[in-house]
């Protein structure tokens, strides 16, 4: 199954037409790898049974099931090839190491000094891709903006020296748009007493998978909606929308774009069958590259306005 041309073309995946994709589209990379192995094992068993054709009846059965067998062969080849390519990218960019630091920064699991050391070490890693360096520094900046500004400047300067494509001032543009003074809500779970208690309980319990510990803020927002505890300070509304109990249908639209992780959160929420259906929309679907591209445009326009 090694000689396929999927690497050089775009492959469209549909949850309506591809049962394996439907079952695994929200799985983490480790579980996806194990499920790929199960699918390959099942295909190999079917292939062995097709080799044992001795009678006309066996031949008739093979001909009858051949279209299904051929479809399964193509599906297995497609998914194995894609996961192989994903694995190559993960290894090449050292994403397991990068991801663990990203998770720690986003989940408020690490102190400022330890985070500074971890990000500095990654910036010094010659195998790091520029976008990964930038993402780490930005996550650090969002988390520790107020704690040690001098060390943040050290990281920004090191980033600029290691990344030829870095736009000077881009990290500060991020903080101007989404820094502590611009944010509402409790992004890191360290403002609200209930959220601090929840984080403490999670720390005592331990993390099952360090690579999937992060939950987007949208998760807490949906949880608050379902329980009728949405803060009107952050989400003002007219009238008593919760007088009839738990809402059955919720439409969430995120201006600026929603992420794949947020889409996964909504999908898992709807799959839980708790009586509330959530529909997620946004002006665009974001990944880190798209987000950084939009941020660079804001940065560029800001520089133009400054010189006018």
From TrEMBL:
<dbReference type="InterPro" id="IPR001619">
    <property type="entry name" value="Sec1-like"/>
</dbReference>
<dbReference type="GO" id="GO:0016192">
    <property type="term" value="P:vesicle-mediated transport"/>
</dbReference>
<dbReference type="Pfam" id="PF00995">
    <property type="entry name" value="Sec1"/>
</dbReference>
<comment type="similarity">
    <text>Belongs to the STXBP/unc-18/SEC1 family.</text>
</comment>
<dbReference type="InterPro" id="IPR036045">
    <property type="entry name" value="Sec1-like_sf"/>
</dbReference>
<dbReference type="InterPro" id="IPR027482">
    <property type="entry name" value="Sec1-like_dom2"/>
</dbReference>
<dbReference type="InterPro" id="IPR043127">
    <property type="entry name" value="Sec-1-like_dom3a"/>
</dbReference>
<protein>
    <submittedName>
        <fullName>Uncharacterized protein</fullName>
    </submittedName>
</protein>
């Amino acid at each position: 199954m090694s000689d396929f041309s999927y690497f050089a073309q775009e492959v469209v995946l549909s949850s309506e037409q591809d049962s394996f994709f439907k079952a695994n589209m929200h799985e983490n990379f480790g579980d996806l790898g194990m499920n790929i192995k199960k699918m390959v094992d099942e295909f190999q068993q079917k292939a062995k049974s097709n080799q044992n054709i001795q009678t006309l009846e066996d031949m008739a059965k093979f001909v009858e099931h051949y279209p299904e067998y051929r479809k399964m062969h193509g599906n297995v080849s497609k998914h194995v090839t894609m996961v192989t390519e994903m694995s190559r990218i993960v290894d090449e960019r050292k994403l397991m190491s990068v991801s663990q630091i990203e998770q720690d920064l986003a989940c408020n699991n690490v102190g400022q000094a330890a985070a500074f050391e971890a990000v500095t070490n990654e910036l010094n890693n010659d195998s790091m891709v520029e976008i990964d360096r930038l993402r780490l520094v930005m996550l650090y900046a969002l988390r520790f903006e107020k704690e040690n500004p001098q060390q943040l400047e050290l990281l920004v300067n090191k980033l600029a020296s290691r990344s030829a494509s870095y736009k000077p001032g881009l990290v500060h543009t991020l903080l101007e748009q989404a820094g502590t003074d611009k944010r509402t809500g409790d992004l890191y779970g360290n403002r609200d007493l209930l959220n601090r208690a929840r984080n403490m309980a999670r720390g005592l319990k331990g993390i099952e998978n360090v690579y999937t510990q992060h939950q987007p803020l949208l998760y807490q927002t949906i949880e608050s909606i379902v329980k009728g505890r949405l803060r009107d300070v952050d989400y003002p509304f007219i009238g008593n929308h919760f007088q009839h109990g738990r809402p059955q249908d919720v439409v969430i639209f995120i201006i600026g774009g929603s992420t794949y992780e947020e889409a996964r959160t909504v999908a898992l929420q709807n799959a839980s069958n708790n009586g509330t259906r959530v529909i997620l929309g946004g002006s665009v679907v974001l990944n880190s590259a798209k987000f950084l591209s939009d941020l660079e445009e804001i940065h560029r326009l800001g520089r133009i306005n400054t010189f006018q």
